[in-house]
Specification:
Among the domains are: 150 residues, Leucine Dehydrogenase, chain A, domain 1 (Rossmann fold, 3-Layer(aba) Sandwich); 162 residues, NAD(P)-binding Rossmann-like Domain (Rossmann fold). It is an alpha/beta fold. It is built from 16 helices and 13 strands. The structure holds glutamic acid (GLU). The site of glutamic acid has 12 residues, from helix 12.
């Protein structure tokens, strides 16, 4: 990114070391947890539509196998490099541990700007990448399970599962080799919005804690809170959507070409459609343009959501940030220097490695669905509805009163797949928030929520290692 001396992996190590001091684990064990176990750096040729052959640079890093499979997305970005993928793979290990998802961390990256390639070229690149992973045993439902990340989505995951399945004929669990797939290819309902919804659940939980809100000088709850979102990709879009739907006011949305501001609130879908139509977020009707996108981060607001890339808030711009709460929807948007600035100013940073864990949490549900070969809710939906109908009719008969039609629909409803997925996600995010807050509040020396989150992650991973008997 902009700062050439910046190492994302070093910055993850720095945050890790800061937290390790608050744990009791052996130094060697901590070193093992920090290290990336396997790094696959590859180059392969792909013939482009114009006949040119391009050599593609790509990676897959498996940070930890303390639990199998490894798990983490694949990003398409021209900023991809080994250091970045290592950092992102490490964050996946800690993220999974915090939300109790039984995976080790992994991450992949292809150094391309997807906007510069045709759909056919992207398909060839994705399929070739997958076959390279198969060749080296770097993918599989019990080995390493990729997912979407920056610049990738359902379409790429469909190509991956199709390539994998065709190279592994007869593998009954092949659909579990990747998550974030379209429903027709074994995806789960609720995966697409999962990261954004998880961000919302996490920040909402923090906002519902009166003592925490008192410290940052805000009232409890999310209703009426002003929100700035950086990034209108899948994560930013859905985060903005859930905040708006729950009564917050999304005052600004930023993309790389600029940002738009409206104190009365923006509707993310309208902004998205405007950008699609015009090719730019700027000149959205009724909103003010901010041509230097970075300035949007410095707007007056209650909650700032960086939902794009790493290293966007650093020692340089952190002192100008006015938000009271920063919810890290992206991976690594703040540098350790920014953390120090915010801890000193009393700005609450809700850290990436748990706040954006909604994606991998629902990926876990998708993987379980693939291994069980049955859709969530299929077995119990009808049964629950029949039972609820019976209970309700008994209540009405015994009380001599009727519930309203609206209530009736709500009470009778048996769970669909999406209901169960959202509910499992809500539970995971609330539990994780409370666990981290308890750790933070139990030790006044812990400077910030990120350090508390790392302490939680380190304790869980270290316990798992020591219970394996590797480090008695
Ligand atoms: N790429 C997402 C992340 O960084 C999701 C990973 C997954 O679902 O495995 O957490």
């Amino acid at each position: 990114m902009s700062n050439t001396n910046y190492s994302f992996f070093k910055s993850v190590e720095k945050s890790f070391d800061k937290a390790a001091k608050f744990t009791k684990w052996d130094k060697g064990l901590l070193e093992q947890i920090k290290a990336c176990n396997s790094i696959y750096s590859m180059r392969f040729p792909v013939k482009m539509d114009d006949g040119r052959i391009e050599v593609i640079e790509a990676y897959r890093v498996q940070h930890s196998q303390h639990k199998s499979p490894c798990k983490g997305g694949i990003r398409f970005s021209d900023a991809v490099n080994q250091d970045e993928v290592m950092a992102l793979a490490s964050l996946m290990t800690y993220k999974c541990a915090i939300v109790n998802v039984p995976f080790g961390g992994g991450k992949g990256g292809i150094k391309i700007n997807p906007r510069n390639y045709s759909a056919y070229e992207l398909e060839k690149i994705t399929r070739r990448y997958t076959s390279e992973l198969v060749k080296k045993n770097f993918i599989g439902p019990g080995i390493d399970v990729p997912a979407p990340d920056y610049g990738t989505g359902e379409r790429e995951m469909a190509w991956i599962v199709d390539t994998y399945a065709s190279l592994k004929p007869g593998e009954i669990d092949a659909a579990g080799c990747v998550t974030g797939k379209p429903i027709s290819q074994g995806g789960v309902r609720g995966r697409k919005e999962a990261t954004g919804l998880g961000v919302f659940f996490g920040v909402r939980e923090v906002c519902n804690m009166p003592d925490v809100m008192k410290k940052v000088g805000l009232t409890t709850g999310v209703v009426g809170k002003t929100v700035v979102v950086q990034g209108l990709g899948n994560v930013g879009y859905h985060t903005a959507k859930f905040f708006r739907e729950h009564g917050s006011v999304v005052v600004a949305i930023a993309e790389y070409e600029g940002a738009v501001y409206n104190a009365k609130g923006l509707n993310e879908e309208e902004v998205f459609q405007h950008r699609k139509k015009t090719g730019s977020i700027l000149n959205f009707p009724g909103a003010t343009n901010i041509t230097n996108s970075k300035e949007a981060l410095e707007l007056e607001c209650d909650i700032l959501i960086p939902a794009a890339l790493e290293n966007v808030i650093n020692g340089e711009n952190a002192p100008r940030i006015k938000a009271k709460i920063i919810g890290e929807a992206a991976n690594g948007p703040l540098t350790p220097e920014a953390d120090d600035v915010f801890a000193a100013k009393g700005i609450l940073v809700v850290p990436d490695m748990y706040l954006n864990a909604g994606g991998v949490t629902v990926s876990y549900f998708e993987w379980l669905k693939n291994l069980s070969h049955v859709r969530y809710g299929r077995m119990e939906k009808r049964f629950t509805e029949n039972m609820n109908t019976h209970i309700l009719s008994q209540i009405e008969e015994l009380s001599g009163k009727k519930v309203s039609e609206k209530e009736k629909l709500f009470i009778l409803h048996g769970p669909e797949e999406v209901d169960l997925v959202h509910s499992g996600l809500e539970e995971s995010m609330i539990t994780a928030t409370r666990e981290i807050m308890d750790i933070w509040h139990s030790n006044p020396e812990i400077p910030d929520m990120r350090t508390a989150a790392y302490v939680n992650a380190i304790n869980k991973v270290a316990t798992s290692y020591s219970e394996l008997g590797i480090f008695p």
